[in-house]
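Entry 14. Structure prediction run on the chain below.
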Amino acid sequence: MSIAFRVLLIIAAVWAFLFVINEVRKAKLQISDSLPWFFFMAIFVILALFPQIAIFFASLLGIQSPVNLVFLFIIGILIIRTFKLTLRVSQLDTKIRELAQRSAIERTDEADREKETEKH
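Output returned:
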């Protein structure tokens, strides 16, 4: 891995760290949602500071260049993250639908009760 790429990894990790911290401070991002990003950035810094880790795993997996391993790692992490977010959105959609149905039932029950009291 070239020095320029290693420096770029560190700069990107520091920038992302500051960005995530800023979003947590603004209450746009929950701390629990920021933890995977901190882990992701820590791995960037470790790979930048100790490129022999990337070199070892690249040779172990038969990948020509350690940089390709880093890109593959990034893509893999992003795919996993996207899948987890898709699951979360699906769960939230289900909860919203259930809440809307409950609310509609409660409004219907309330309207029926009002009609009953008006009759008497």
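The two ends are 84 Å apart (CA to CA).
Filed with the rest of this week's runs.
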